[in-house]
């Protein structure tokens, strides 16, 4: 018979972790009342997987699902029964240090409530190897079934189960969890949480005090321009004042061609495009001083670097004054923190926005590292891909998140984050 005491059930969980290093909760506090919550965490450790956790008898009974839960009634997903987790783990979102058990980044992919479909005690159903249950989450809904496979355990000795969705009203053929990667808690992706975790869990404190804010708070959420604001831009003549999100932008030479071709792309179209995509650019710009590569006469002519904020910049444009600048060095940098600021940069001819690798206010502590991988005279792009994969493997050994940045002319910039 399975143990029902939460502290006894968490013995395996605790034995695998060093709580002086990992930010995960230890489960030392008392469990909250009620046992009808579920959570699914998207967890990038050695391999990407989803952790399905059902709150039962004061703990989170857990399965690792490599391909993730799905609403597709034809799918049969492998689910590996892992150790129970403490209920404080329910909304954990952050980074588990490399070298610790389960090291990697975690987001709360879905959460809600659940209920067993049968009258039987769910712990008894799990012991028998057949659990039918209903989920009421923000992504997942309807009747699910967990059934233990006859083949028994995997190479690590853990039980292998199958997770499936019944063909009910909530079923959606072909539904793929990877099409819905964002956290229901924060709206962030795993990449964003890995680069700037907003909190850590202090296992040496009581559960009510254990969540500690970190300096790397998640970025704000920006909204793009409205249809009415875009229509106002389209109706401007060669230049004029454009009001967007309460900010007034003085736009010039809107019919100038910046990208020759068939058809050519005008400055008006570039400003419009930057305004529309700004909400996805801003998380990587909003708290970093900016260097510009300007092309005011279009990309057919050489561009040039520009760092100093011009005197005609609007008062609302955020600026950072470098107190350590030597004579002749740039003293005032722009810090792009809004959709209008991105659009203003496009009007200024700043087609390339190069953010610093450090964030304000600690400009001496980089949070990114950039590794340039450019082809030489005797190498091609296939060689670049080999090197990029080797860098990725090396970074994984260091516990650093790496991703390709392919906005350059020829090669790949490997973008690495320490948070």
Describe this structure in words.
The strands form seven sheets. Strands 1-2-3-4-9-8-7-6 form an eight-stranded antiparallel beta barrel. A three-stranded antiparallel sheet has the order 17-16-20. Strands 21-23-22 form a three-stranded antiparallel sheet. The longest helix has 18 residues, at 381-398. The chain is built from eight helices and 23 strands. It is 17% helix and 32% strand. It folds into three domains: 6-213, no CATH class; 227-366, DNA primase, PRIM domain (Alpha-Beta Complex), CATH 3.90.920.10; 367-419.
Task: Sum this structure up briefly.
The chain folds into 3 domains: 6-213, no CATH class; 227-366, DNA primase, PRIM domain (Alpha-Beta Complex); 367-419. Helices cover 17% and strands 32% of the residues. It contains 8 helices and 23 strands.
Which short descriptors sum up this protein?
8-stranded antiparallel β-barrel; 3-stranded antiparallel beta sheet; elongated; 17% helix; 23 strands; alpha+beta; single chain; 419 residues; DNA primase, PRIM domain
Strand content: 25-35%
Separation of termini? Answer: 43 Å
The major sheet is characterized as:
8 strands, antiparallel, barrel
Radius of gyration equals 26 Å
Shape: elongated
Rounded mean pLDDT is: 84
State the helix count: 8
The helix-and-strand class reads: alpha+beta
Give, in spatial order, the strands making up the sheet with the most strands.
1-2-3-4-9-8-7-6
What share of the residues lie within helices?
10-25%
Total number of domains: 3
Name the poorly predicted regions. 16-34
Q: Please provide the count of β strands.
A: 23
